[in-house]
Design goal:
three-stranded mixed beta sheet, 450 residues, mainly alpha, 6% strand
């Protein structure tokens, strides 16, 4: 029986990865991705690790450390037969695979059949969440942040049995984005509340071994927060946030019901993890208030850890219901109602077309849109590639010219590595003309030198 859950998780991950690779091959590097690539040759490893590239809104050293390693290995590994944009983004897919398989490997001997089924449901909803799918095809911190949040919550319940793994995960989360400060603060509050309920005293005795990880991660975040640059965007309207945040209200209600359910049964580890997950959702207005004060624009990506909280709440609700059904016990009506309300609410965020999309991609393939008009050059590859190029910037795109140029430079470097001059002839009389096209670029023509 143990082999079937493994196969199910691997199957879902494969479907997710096929679609993510197809998506990443059609998407240009964004401005902050391009900025990171521009900075890598300028700074040494310690600088990249400690602060990340300058002028980034979040230091995110762990993410940039991985990107830096991938960037250094791009040519020795021959781009793994991928397009350059896919190669530079594939480490986020690797992180997702490691997250799912590691969590299940660590907990599968500690849970019963009902919880295994619940975990599979949580993985499915997490991976097919449209936000997770979207950011898995980019070279930014959001996918890694979401993966670490997922591991955090599921290891949270077993942190007494797996303290080292859990400590490493929250340290990694602290080194991924300064916004993880909110997660750490909420987790701290969840620990205190759980201990108050368990010990029945207003000032509980909390072991130093539990407080040390919290203290260290807060120091790490404080360091990165101080280094983050200040912005001056017009403050976003509250209605923007509430239109987004109202989607999480059914999850908060479900978590509250489950908290009562587990409190009555004295399941303290489950209670603490649920308080953390629901607290991540509840603290949204506070984080948005600070976004307004800090002059940042609003974007749902700032709450990319929400799907991890949703997945854990689904896991807890499903495991409780499956356990009662498998043991022929009556399931409380309120559990059914809140679980159904929650699932219906997140259904709109779930893309169930991904399996069919992956099959379609494997059968038909998908065109790579970077660069635009590649067919202009394809007859010359690998026969006689122009030796030089000319890149034309367009004023209407302003700052985006830099992103377009970086996308072109990445692609041109890929061409040189894939078709080295010593093996494939170059045409010294020809020059390839490319120009900016928003974040991307297009090949315009091949000119003969006068």
């Amino acid at each position: 029986m143990q082999i079937f859950p493994w196969l199910a998780i691997i199957g879902v991950l494969t479907v997710f990865s096929v679609n993510s690779l197809a998506h990443s091959g059609r998407k240009a590097l964004w401005r902050d991705e391009a900025h990171a690539l521009q900075q890598f040759p300028k700074y040494k490893f310690p600088r990249i690790f400690w602060t990340g590239p300058p002028q980034e809104g979040s230091a995110s050293p762990l993410d940039y450390l991985i990107m830096y390693a991938v960037y250094q290995l791009r040519q020795p590994l021959h781009y793994l037969s991928l397009q350059p944009h896919q190669y530079l983004r594939i480490h986020h897919l690797v992180a997702l695979w490691l997250a799912m398989l590691f969590v299940y490997w660590k907990i599968n001997r500690r849970i019963n059949l009902s919880e295994i089924l619940a975990f599979l449901a949580a993985v499915g909803f997490f991976l097919f969440n449209s936000t997770i799918y979207y950011y898995s095809s980019e070279m930014r911190m959001y996918s890694l942040w979401a993966s670490l949040s997922f591991i955090w919550l599921f290891l949270h319940r077993f942190r007494r049995q797996l303290p080292v793994a859990w400590f490493i995960v929250i340290l990694a989360a602290a080194a991924t984005t300064t916004a993880s400060t909110f997660q750490i603060v909420v987790f701290s509050a969840a620990v205190v509340i759980t201990e108050i309920l368990k010990q029945k005293r207003l000032i509980p005795r909390i072991p130093f071994s539990w407080l040390m990880p919290i203290f260290i991660t807060l120091l790490i975040n404080l360091n990165f927060l101080i280094q983050s640059p200040k912005y001056s965007y017009p403050p976003p309207a509250w209605i923007q946030f509430f239109n987004f945040w109202q989607q999480s209200l059914p999850a908060i209600i479900s978590a509250a019901v489950l908290v009562i359910f587990h409190y009555r049964r004295r399941h303290w580890d489950r209670l603490e993890a649920l308080l953390t997950a629901s607290g991540w959702l509840l603290i949204g207005p506070v984080s948005f208030f600070l976004i307004r004060k800090g002059g940042l624009f609003f974007d749902p990506r700032q709450y990319v850890y929400y799907p991890a909280a949703y997945a854990y709440i689904i896991y807890e609700a499903a495991s409780a219901i499956f356990f009662l059904l498998i043991n022929f016990r009556k399931v409380p009506v309120y559990l059914y109602l809140t679980a159904c309300l929650f699932i219906v609410s997140i259904w709109r965020q779930t893309d169930l077309s991904l399996p069919l999309q992956s099959v379609r991609f494997l059968i038909l393939g998908q065109p790579i849109s970077l660069p635009v008009n590649y067919s202009l050059l394809s007859p010359n590859v690998p026969g006689s590639i122009p030796q030089n190029y000319e890149f034309q910037e367009i004023d209407q795109y302003r700052l985006d010219n830099k992103a377009a140029r970086t996308n072109f430079d990445v692609w041109w470097e890929y061409m040189l590595a894939r078709y080295p001059p010593e093996s494939f002839p170059r045409d010294p009389s020809a020059i390839l003309v490319a120009r900016a096209r928003d974040f991307s670029f297009e090949l315009v023509e091949i000119q003969k030198k006068l």
